[in-house]
Design goal:
Helix content is 62%, strand content 7%.
Length: 109
């Protein structure tokens, strides 16, 4: 992987690791526009100030936009979400593994 590719990955991960960033995008995954209030409710637990910040960052990054019906995912945002679409299945398998570890702790340190 080139240094340029690494820089792009680091830049994207820095954007997505901000608090609630992925959850904001995930709330728009069905492709239906959402008003600010509906988006806030969809994300859950996010303050208006934090949501405004995430919206600004995601819009500047070209991952979400705003139309007459509210905030929506862009083509680039939809592409990113498609690439993350395996996340729910992975998360379910991972959570099951974590539960097994708690129920059957390893005897090795």
């Amino acid at each position: 992987m080139s240094a340029k590719d690494n820089a792009a990955i680091h830049q994207l991960l820095a954007l997505l690791e901000a608090r609630y960033a992925i959850r904001v995008l995930w709330a728009l995954r069905d492709g239906h526009p959402q008003t600010f209030r509906l988006l806030q409710d969809s994300v859950g637990g996010i303050t208006p100030n934090t949501l405004n910040t995430r919206i600004k960052e995601m819009r500047e990054a070209g991952l979400m936009g705003h139309g007459p019906d509210g905030y929506c995912i862009t083509a680039a945002g939809a592409d990113l979400l498609r690439r993350l679409s395996d996340l729910p299945a992975f998360a379910a398998r991972w959570a099951a593994m974590q539960g097994k570890k708690k129920n059957h702790p390893s005897t090795t340190p």
